[in-house]
Amino acid sequence: MNQNNIFPTKSNLLAAKKSLGLARMGYELMDRKRHILVREMMALIDKANALRSEIDDTYDTAYRALQFANLTLGVCDTIAQSAPIEGGLSMSFRSVMGVELPTVRLENTEPDIYYDLSSSNGAYDRAYLNFHRVKLMIAELAEIENSVYRLAIAIKKAQSRANALKNIIIPNLEHTGKFITDALEEKDREEFSRQKVIKKNKL
Q1: Who's near 147: CB < 8 A, 6+ residues apart?
Q2: What total number of domains does the chain contain?
Q3: Quick one: average pLDDT of 96-120?
Q4: Is the dihedral of CA 152, 153, 159, 160 positive or negative?
């Protein structure tokens, strides 16, 4: 703020003090928001890491079962081709401190048996059920990773705004307040001295 364009009046001093109070409040709110978002993001990152590990383990179980099914049934591509296309994916949003985070849902979470049980065996059933579990977990992971991405962007913006308030706006308002206060005090001293001289000349 260019102090040369500011008239040192009491009304401007009050306005500067009010703006400074609002800026300090804004900084506290922005800093609090940033901390809440960071906590939310770190919790989601931990959840995503655990989920990735579970997905890897479930994939490993599913592929081993499928490999055994291929060995005992022959290549299972004919059975697999009858699997229905997933169409039950839906998404909504929830707000965390003004940040819209996705909620991903899959309908019909209970797997439907689409194949003839007489043409399969227990190994194929295990593969199918584990791949179904992986599908659900991948949907959840997509929700979490998208949320982490959105939170990271929001945290960066909040940090940038908090830094601007702390390092630029608040110091400028503090300097403006001091400039006006000093100017008003100097004006009062000059007025006091002038009144003193006038009084002395009247004697």
Answers
A1: 41, 44, 101, 102
A2: 1
A3: 80
A4: positive
Coil, strand, or helix at residue 105?
A: strand
Banded model confidence at residue 20, pLDDT cuts 50, 70, 90:
very high
What span, in angstroms and rounded, lies between the C-alpha atoms of 34 and 55? 31
Distance CA 172, CA 24 (A): 12
Shortest CA distance to 41 belongs to which of 162, 139, 146, 140?
146
Map tokens 């689409």 to a residue.
Answer: 114
**AA letter at 102:** P
pLDDT tier at 194, thresholds 50, 70, 90: confident
Can you give the residue range of the structural domain that contains 79? Answer: 3-202
Whole-model pTM?
0.77
CATH number at residue 47: 1.10.287.3240
Residue 181, by phi and psi: left (phi above 0), alpha (psi -120 to 50) or beta?
A: alpha
- What is the spatial distance between Cα 121 and Cα 124, in angstroms, rounded to a whole number? 5
* Residue type at 83 in one-letter notation: A
Which helix (H) or strand (E) covers residue 194, if one does? helix 170-202
pLDDT for position 163: 95
